[in-house]
Amino acid sequence: MFKQFLSKFPRKSSSKAENNGDSTGNNNSVNNNAVGNGIQRTNSSNSSTVSSRSNVVKRMSSAVFPSSVVAGIEPLLSFKDVSNPEKQNLLISKLNLCCVVFDFNDSKNAAEKDLKRSTLIELVDFVASGSVRFNEPVIAAVCKMTALNLFRVFPPNYRSNGGGENDDDEPMFDPAWSHLQLVYDLLLRFITSSNLDAKVAKKHVDHSFVLKLLDLFDSDDPRERDCLKTILHRIYGKFMVHRPFIRKSVSNIFYRFVFETERHNGIAELLEIFGSVISGFALPLKEEHKMFLCRALIPLHKPKSVGLYLQQLSYCIAQFLEKDPKLVSYVIRGLLKYWPVTSSQKEVMFLGELEEILEATNMAEFQKIMVPLFKRIGTSLNSSHFQGYQFHECPHSLDRVAERALFLWNNDHIVSLIAHNRQVILPLIYPALEKNAQGHWNQAVLNLTLNVRKMFAEMDNDLVLSYQEKFEDEAAKLKAACEKRTVIWERLENVASFQPVTGNTAVLVKQ
Hints:
Low-confidence stretches: 1-63, 67-71, 158-168, 385-396
Helix content: 55-70%
Strand content: under 5%
Number of helices: 23
Number of strands: 0
Function: The B regulatory subunit might modulate substrate selectivity and catalytic activity, and also might direct the localization of the catalytic enzyme to a particular subcellular compartment.
Region (Disordered): 1-52
Family: Belongs to the phosphatase 2A regulatory subunit B56 family.
Subcellular location: Cytoplasm
Protein name: Serine/threonine protein phosphatase 2A regulatory subunit
């Protein structure tokens, strides 16, 4: 069987290969850093390498590496052992050899796995040398090998439940990473090579290829998502023809995540890519880009797992506002639309993002949204008076909502905006401030409330006094109405006590 298998390889340059050996044996080692880092290796002597490679070849099976896969030129040869015209054919032969995919859930085919890994390392080094001229057959072979190794459907038990909502969840690592990392490294060097003509490569790095790359962002392995992030960003930069398609496809991923599944592992990485993409948008912004903000980014505040990607989301929105400050009103109205009413932890995050947005808001845009905004802030100031908490939250988190809302007055720019519009804003939040000041049980909230009242008094003491009178008058009216209702109920109870209900007499109860 072994002789029949070897007889299928051409004998060309074989004697030279035996004399020189192969510089990439089984003793090579690759670090597990993010894709694009240098590959570290240790080389053994020529004699030991030849012996190791010979042992591997003897243990190879034609069932694992069929002759049809490696036809053309012997893939075990080193690039330095063939002439320059033959290097293209050897590159394709090695790429075809690496199209064989192994199952890493068992220990079978260990020698073949090592051979494939050493071949991948050799390919990465050869592409990184910059001496490769990527003609169309080579491009097709690279894309084919990449697709066979990377594009796969994750089994149901591979994904974490809830899309990684818990920060304490241990990430799942793919057992095939020793091969996958090298394939990703090769793909990255292929995409970023100056010898790659994007006009020729777009026939193979097409929409289907990009779409399958995007599907891999749902991987549970954070190392794989990090590699994908770098590669997709390079594809977006090099293949201008694919940019609208990539934006549309990513939008569809966001839509499906927000409105259907609320499960996806790669939202943070996709947002990180778009953070730099948005910063490159030309001015004035196209209507398509504004729609991406309103329909794809802002709704990402809706899922309960927003805390896992809020930092990247906030950065993307900040890039939009830096490009066009007039979008502030759309963003804040979107925040108010998705404002949490049952999760105090999420509300604290919203208040933090709101402060960042207001810090970059000018007076004209602030005046467009200040009424609905401070109605919501007034509600947050009194959240602990009426809002319950979830089973995993403690009651003190409700006080953190009020405390975080009061921290807005520590920002000088926000205070300046409020001061210029105090006649509109003070009536919206004064009742909440007064309720807190009358005796909130949390000392921190009480102190912050008194400081905010003092700031308003320093801005316009007459205005504060007038609203204090109105508040006291309304409180007196409410107290009188409450006492009146109490008296009425007492009278009804007295009358009912003298006329007891007997038998099946119907009783009319008014609420």
